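Record 1 of the preview.
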Amino acid sequence: EVQLVESGGGLVQPGGSLRLSCAASGFIFSNYAMSWLRQAPGKGLEWVSIIVSSGSGVTENYADSVKGRFTISRDNAKNTLYLQMNSLKPEDTAVYYCAKSPGQGLELEYDYWGQGTQVTVSS
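->
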């Protein structure tokens, strides 16, 4: 059974940092692209970042809204996905989800999701 469990959310002041984690199980983690998405209050789901690791290296893509502030990474030995979030802004407030892709490509397609972790940026 595929499971994705996010953690690391919380309340942080503007300009602060948080690191989210997503513990994966039930599949061969290294074989799949993984993403972070978020949903702000009253808004739709927004893609944040995707990471693919393959024999040729690691590829990361970011939404323009987080580029230069957020860093996605993965530890395939620990079956864990991370999102380092720096210079946080109030508009980053959202529930953050990790999601598994059905393949190794950069297509924004997902077949499994976690339950989400709340990030609130407020003074």
